[in-house]
Design goal:
binds iron/sulfur cluster, 22 helices, two-stranded antiparallel sheet, 5-stranded parallel β-sheet, binds flavin-adenine dinucleotide
Amino acid sequence: MPALVLILGDQLSPALSALRDIDQDDEVLLAEVAAEATYSWHHQHKLVLIFSAMRHFAAALRQQGLQVHYIDYGQQIPSLLAAVQQVLAANPTLDRVRLTEAAEYRLASEISQWPATLGIPVDVREDDRFICSHAMFRRWASGRNQLRMEYFYREMRRYTGLLMTPAGPAGGRWNYDADNRSACPADTVLPAPQWTEPDDITSEVIALVSREFGTHPGDARTFRFAVTGKDARAAFLHFVRERLPLFGRYQDAMRDGDAFMVHSLVSVYLNCGLLDARWACLQVAQAYEQNQVPLAAAEGFIRQIIGWREYVRGLYWLLMPEYKSRNFLGASRPLPGWYWNGQTRMRCMAQAIDHTMQHAYSHHIQRLMLTGNFALLAGLSVEAVCDWYLAVYADAFEWVELPNTLGMALFADGGVLASKPYIASGNYINKMSNYCQHCPYDVKQSTGENACPFNALYWDFLARHQEQLAGNARLQLIYGQWQRKDPALQQQLRERAAWLLGHLEQL
Ligand code: FAD
Ligand code: SF4
């Protein structure tokens, strides 16, 4: 009973569960379809990445002797269902469909209707590229009042054995985050990431994306990500050798003109399947065991993958679809137009957005403490901000984007993911970067025409949401500071914030 094995654009892994016991009579399908290319206003680099990686993956499967159907974008197939129907109609011996579960709720729901629509069995297998299964996450979450990442992470350390000794966590502590908060001096030379020059297949896709998606964010012609597992692994090993030793120390730092700092860029490859999360963590654990990287760097990195990455995926599947409609703080202001082009005088925001538009990438602190923090302080529409994050990053897929944006950055889930809102005034940005030295606004001022917008917006946010947030134990100190301020100053701050909120486009 030969099956049609459908492989989605973020499932480009040779060890994929749907491919595991593939038979010579089975046939494989990969399809570049309009619905997937347009459900979000995807950055051009993301489209090049997925299409080119799919084409390379299809070629590798053919080399293994498998029969592969590849539907390219030019064939104008509207949806994955239509692609499956087309191949089944032309190949009547195929009497079932097999695939690995979709990572996003939207697509998984559509696929759950396929057995009825197609009238044949559709075998959906678990995606065991993730280390924590849905069942395991549900078990961990059940009965807990709070679903904090730190406790989940400890379970995952025990489960994987990564950085564990018979006596407990390596070095005696679970978490070295406190050692990972240094700013990075402007003259420190940081090694650059390893890039991949486009080959013929990628060049063809770049031309296609420039032609068909030229109005989307970014410029396809500057694409330099790896598009094969082999090149992604080489880029990652380069990171481990050259950049990981500094990763812990400068993990939270930002620097004018520096888009990547010492971050790994590995989400781009993990999320489409070119890299395996377990393999990446093992490389890092091994580098620590061979004394090539400090424990704080290795632990900091592994925590991001087996902790944060697995945790947000678990949370997404636990709480969807209701999670997507949450808006705890009632945020609804339109997104200023400069989120799409970086044309704001705020140097920190201009840099984060400019990097995003150029590279379909910005690092975590830029996403959280610049573009996210500003959106939270200004009460920008949760839906519009989530749409923005889903569109502009090469690593953006809803299972990981939504909990990070709605939960971590915007506190719209009311504290499921974060124990308090991630808010910061200009003071924090100035401490962790040198942006303020290049900014026309004055980070030391909170009121007045030239004052850093983050300052008044910070206090106004706290005042505006006092009813919802004042009971939060972790905000007591800050609310105490607010209450001790002279009422005249409080009023000036709120007036400055009201002006800023009324003139967001002009900042
Ligand atoms: P590194 O700093 O080198 O970290 C290593 C890896 O750890 C990342 O590649 C990623 O796989 C994992 N990781 C770290 N933090 C997180 C996290 N909070 N959630 C999930 N995985 C994490 N990550 C995405 O992969 N896709 C997204 O669409 C996405 N959207 C985000 C939106 C917002 C508002 C915020 C605050 C964060 C978002 N993140 C997202 C998480 C994180 O910012 C990125 O994973 C990271 O910046 C990717 O760059 P890197 O690979 O260089 O990361
Ligand atoms: Fe950003 Fe304010 Fe610093 Fe300007 S002064 S870079 S707006 S934090």
